[in-house]
Amino acid sequence: EPEVTQTPSHQVTQMGQEVILRCVPISNHLYFYWYRQILGQKVEFLVSFYNNEISEKSEIFDDQFSVERPDGSNFTLKIRSTKLEDSAMYFCASRLQGGQPQHFGDGTRLSIL
Amino acid sequence: QQQVKQSPQSLIVQKGGISIINCAYENTAFDYFPWYQQFPGKGPALLIAIRPDVSEKKEGRFTISFNKSAKQFSLHIMDSQPGDSATYFCAAARSGAGSYQLTFGKGTKLSVIP
Predict the structure, then answer these.
(1) Per-residue confidence at B96, pLDDT binned at 50, 70, 90?
(2) Which residues of A touch B98 (CB under 8 A)?
(3) A33 contacts in B (CB within 8 Å)?
């Protein structure tokens, strides 16, 4: 069964550094998402992406965050200047179309020191 | 108004018993209600989903009950097995919003003991 793959599985970064989290969505999917889960808390929506542009974003997704689909297969989340509170599990998800469900990757654990 | 409230936070059930997890929402614009199962070190995996035009949906041992007037929905796991031990998240989305962004509950850690 096709799946969403995320790399790396764990990223450790110094505060203030830039970090890029990478995702390969399911190949024929059209909608792409980033969510995050701070340890012990619920999964929170960050941003959705469709037709090469952001379709919705939450208040968490401020100017420090950006997303990109640099080619036909990758979908990236960049955090420009990381803060301690950015430490979380980041999940990528993709969806085919219409009422089809979102499929999640196994996440990248981001640890900011 | 965007919140989805989930209870209980944790649940211990004997093997063969019924596990029941409840969720409530406030935003009446929500019209898609999935349940996700998450094992440690893995991402959420879709278990079952319901839309408000039906009051119940069953897939194998998993059933969603939906009460539109009360704005509540619940997951029932019949004949619970140790392999069902995981964290379960309810979620809600607005299909009309286009992106179907999911609003999650806080999760329920289910432990099924032999």
Answers:
(1) low
(2) 50, 55-56
(3) 99, 101
Count each helix (H run) and each strand (E run) in chain B, helices first. 0, 11
Would you state the pLDDT for residue A90?
A: 98
Q: What is the mean pLDDT of residues B38-48?
A: 92
Q: Please, which residues bridge with residue B113 across strands? A: B14
Distance separating alpha carbons of residues B107 and B89, to the nearest angstrom: 4
Over residues B59-75, the pLDDT tens digits come to 999 999 999 999 999 99
Site from A6, A24, A47, A104 to mutate, B interface, most B CB atoms within 10 angstroms: A104
CB A33 within 8 A of CB A48: yes
Contact between chains at A44 and B42 (C-beta distance less than 8 A): no
Q: Comparing B67 with A100, which gets the higher pLDDT?
A: B67
Q: What is the pLDDT of residue B49?
A: 94
Q: Does A99 touch chain B (CB under 8 A)?
A: yes
Q: Which CATH class is domain A5-112?
A: mainly beta
CATH number for the domain that contains residue B23: 2.60.40.10
At residue A98, does pLDDT exceed 80? no
DSSP string, A25-82: --TT--EEEEEEE-TTS-EEEEEEEETTEEEEE-TT--TTEEEE--SSS-EEEEESS-
Domains of chain A, by residue range, sit at 5-112
For residue B97, what pLDDT is reported? 60
Chain A residues whose CB is inside 8 A of the B23 CB are none
What range defines the domain where residue B79 resides? Answer: 4-113
